[in-house]
Amino acid sequence: MSTPPLDFFKSQTGKILDKTPSAAGNWLAGKLIEIEVGQIRVQYTVRPEMCNPVKILHGGVASLMLDDVIGMANFVAGSEYLMTSINLSVDFLSSAQIGEELEVSAKLIRSGANLNHWEAVISKKSGKIVAKASSNMIKTHLKLKDLGF
């Protein structure tokens, strides 16, 4: 099933994501590796401005990565309505240093009439998990087409 949001993001595969509807996500400057309905993978490089005072990835930035990747994937999941996060539960499992490449992957676990449930993971090239999250996205009353999407 091809949709304009999916077509847009597929056209960004292999590119830095700096022209998405999310200004915060654009700041992260991730590279889209893969996107399909129900799954996504994005690569990020930890920059100094993403770190806390001890120079490791800030938990808030890790949470932003997880939330933004889930949001992108949910955006192409097929709803005609805008969906928004109603929760984000994050477990921080290890640190990431400046210069490290991370991959954030998200998978749609359950798609319902009004609610989509996602799980996401930040991992290092070694496979070590930096953080994992679950999130629920709820349908709003706003139609994507009325928002210009």
From TrEMBL:
Pfam families in the record: 4HBT
**InterPro entries found in the cross-reference section:** ACOT13 (IPR039298), HotDog_dom_sf (IPR029069), PAAI_dom (IPR003736), Thioestr_dom (IPR006683)
Xref: SUPFAM superfamilies: Thioesterase/thiol ester dehydrase-isomerase
Q: Does the keyword Coiled coil apply?
A: no
**Molecular functions (GO terms):** fatty acyl-CoA hydrolase activity
Q: Pinpoint the Thioesterase domain residues.
A: 56-130
- Going by the entry's taxonomy, the superkingdom of the source organism is recorded as Bacteria
Query: Which UniProt keywords are given for this protein, alphabetically ordered?
Result: Hydrolase
Phosphoprotein as a keyword?
A: no
The UniProt entry, under Gene3D superfamilies, shows: Hotdog Thioesterase
Q: Which family does it belong to?
A: Belongs to the thioesterase PaaI family.
Q: Which NCBIfam families match?
A: unchar_dom_1 (TIGR00369)
Full protein name: Uncharacterized domain 1-containing protein
Q: Which organism is it from?
A: Algoriphagus hitonicola
